[in-house]
Specification:
Oligomer: single chain
Number of domains: 2
Largest sheet: none
Number of strands: 0
Helix content: over 70%
Amino acid sequence: MSSEASNPEFEKSLAELEESLRKLKERYQEIQQSQQQQAELLKELLEVEPDLEMVEQVKSMRDELQILEVTLESGLLKDDELRRLFWLAVKNGLMGDVFWQGLRFGGIGLIFGWLLRSFL
């Protein structure tokens, strides 16, 4: 047994990764089902002949299509997953370099501007 397998942080990260993968697979299945349902509704909509009795059915089909389009446009990531990924990147230091570079160059710009204004 390696030291990585007994490491609680490794096990926790592995569990989080498995949970993320499970959620991603569920979301992918939702998207596939939505695409299939969208194709079926479009096919039904094209088959419907213009008839006064069918106007309500056509309206409801269009509404359903719009809802499905919104679902499909959301892609694979939901808001809570994007938020979690953002904070994970911050936690791992990916945003730290950007912050310190912005602070450094912004500070230099302020000092340079202050010097120019005071001497000119």
